[in-house]
Write a structure and sequence with these properties.
The protein is α/β, with parallel strands linked by helices and about 325 residues long. The chain contains twelve helices and 14 strands. The strands form three sheets. Strands 3-2-4-5-7-6-12 form a seven-stranded mixed beta sheet, with helices on both faces. Strand 10, helix 8 and strand 11 (about 220-225) form a beta-alpha-beta unit. Helix 1 (about 10-25) packs parallel to helix 7 (about 145-160) and helix 3 packs parallel to helix 5. It is globular. The two termini are about 25 Å apart. The relative contact order is 0.14.
Length: about 325
């Protein structure tokens, strides 16, 4: 059984931009801040339609986080926008002290995450951000897979009280979650299977679905689950699936240390120890190349997921 339909290709950051545009019309408390990347973050329409609620802070990301924290005191809901590298690594102290520790209602929205930033190279391709953000007490961490889910998540986090890290990407990718509801912390099962569980997040969800089709041709039944919320993790969905399949593969565009895979491993270790394989970057920085070239070289595609599935099944 499939619960997805491929329609077109579109970038996830446009989902954020369109969601923010809609929020501008429906929620007068939403304000937006950007660190000199309005076009890249697709925040142009919000800025044009609501100039009194848009703050261009320039290349001063640390200041942007402090301003955002301050705006919450007056009841505003600030959405900050810049690349994932600058949204987390560059401003971690400000996020920790001014937003997370103070439990401020700031939405940290991060584009161009992971290797698929492509030609800009290792200095911009952050692969540690999920780990950094999920370790902060009280921080909700969301990593969306396509345009539709990113738009839905943008709308949902405006209603959520508390700090949120919303991670999305640069390239155009298949849109396939059009009819799926979005609920923070609630995983979405996309295929039913009996031999292996594949839990994936972000751009790797589509790769997992392609892998499942290839595995089906090999006589292997794969259950694919979209984990859009890394924290809080939907442990119930994961445990229910592995109770049936007996093994699991995690797939993410992130370092294998600190990401989705480790969160799933902790869940399994404390509830139901289960064979697990990781599809993730193997403790390295990226490099400059096209997104497709990087995903292949670093083992973040359907081919890598198929290999991981075959390996984990042999361990059952």
């Amino acid at each position: 059984m499939k619960k997805y339909t491929y329609t077109e290709k579109k970038d996830t950051r446009s989902g954020f931009g369109d969601g923010l545009t809609e929020l501008g019309k429906t929620n007068p408390n939403v304000v937006a801040l950007c660190a000199d990347l309005t076009g890249s973050l697709k925040m142009n329409e919000f800025a044009k339609n609501h100039p009194e609620r848009f703050f261009q802070v320039g290349i001063a990301e640390a200041n942007m986080m402090g301003i955002a924290a301050g705006l919450t005191i007056g009841g505003k809901i600030p959405f900050t926008g810049t690349f994932a590298n600058f949204s987390t690594g560059r401003v971690y102290d400000q996020i920790r002290q001014s937003i997370a520790y103070s439990d401020k209602n700031v939405k940290i929205c991060a584009s161009h995450a992971g290797l698929t930033l492509g030609e800009d190279g290792a200095t911009h391709q952050i692969l540690e951000d999920i780990g950094l953000m999920k370790m902060l007490p009280g921080m909700t961490v969301i990593n969306t897979c396509d345009y539709s889910q990113t738009k839905a998540a943008t709308l949902a986090i405006a209603e959520h009280e508390g700090p949120v890290y919303l991670r999305f990407g640069r390239p155009s990718v298949p849109v396939f979650m059009t009819d799926q509801p979005f609920e923070i912390g609630k995983a979405i099962q996309l295929t039913e299977g009996t031999d292996v569980t594949i839990v994936a997040t972000g751009h790797l969800v589509w790769e997992a679905l392609q892998a499942a089709e290839q595995l089906e041709e090999k006589g292997i039944s794969a259950e694919v689950i979209n984990i859009h919320t890394i924290k809080p993790l939907d442990e119930e969905a994961i445990l229910k699936s592995v109770a049936k399949t007996g093994c699991i593969v995690t797939a993410e565009e992130h370092n294998k240390y600190g990401g989705l895979g480790e969160s799933v491993a902790r869940c399994l270790a404390t509830n139901n120890p289960t064979p697990q394989e990781f599809v993730a970057v193997n403790d390295s920085f990226g490099e400059s190349a096209t997104p497709a070239e990087l995903m292949k070289k670093y083992g973040l595609n359907d081919e890598a997921i198929v290999k991981a599935v075959e390996k984990v099944i042999s361990r059952k």
